[in-house]
Amino acid sequence: MKKIKDERLILINLKNIRFAYIIQTLGIIGILGYDLVTKGLNGMRENPLWIVFMVSIVVSAYLSMNVSVDHENNEKSSKKGLFISLVIVSLISVMIGILTSLSEGFTIINGIIIGGILFVCGLVPVLYIYYLRKKRQEDNPDE
Fold first, then answer.
1. Which residue in 65, 57, 56, 70 sits closest to 140, CA to CA?
2. How many domains does the chain have?
3. Which of 12, 46, 71 delimits the end of a domain?
4. Which domain of life is it from (predicted)?
5. Are residues 87 and 138 in the same domain?
6. In whole angstroms, what is the distance from residue 122 CA to residue 110 CA?
């Protein structure tokens, strides 16, 4: 097989892949929805399609971040954006940790654990976006 070099054909191929991805995602959501109705929330999460769905959503989000960074203007300082994002992630994590520890049936340890998990889960995309912005600045120093 030869590699396709015609941009029109590449675009058509990408549109076909996007359409197949949409159909696949709708099928997974349909199956998970059926499991939710018949087996409840725990039964739905026991289905292996739940893991496939979560992984595909995370991968799609990270690929979208790359496109977003390439699309945005280069006027922003990447360190300023990193600082603002870290402050926001920290505040959200602390607030949810405090609210969790104040909730009935939860202890301070539960609040710290949940706040810490949210902080780490928010930190990963923030650092990834910072990495993409820095890489873009290094690749295009004149912009």
1. 70
2. 2
3. 71
4. Bacteria
5. yes
6. 18
Summarize the confidence of residues 92-115 as an average pLDDT.
Answer: 92
Whether the Cβ atoms of residue 16 and residue 4 lie closer than 8 Å to each other: no
Tally helices (H) and strands (E) across the chain. 4, 0
Q: How many of the other CB atoms lie within 10 Å of CB of 69?
A: 19
What is the band of 140 on the pLDDT scale with cuts at 50, 70, 90?
confident
Pair 116, 50 in one domain:
no
10 lies in the same domain as 45: yes
Quote the tokens at residue 92. Answer: 């959200």
Coil vs helix vs strand at 107: coil
Residue 67 and residue 9 share a domain = yes
Same domain, 25 and 49: yes
Q: Are residues 89 and 120 located together in one domain of the fold?
A: yes
pLDDT digits (tens, 9 = 90+) for 31-62: 999 999 999 988 888 999 989 888 888 888 88
d(CA 25, CA 44): 15
Structural domain span for residue 92: 72-143
CA distance 8 to 12: 6
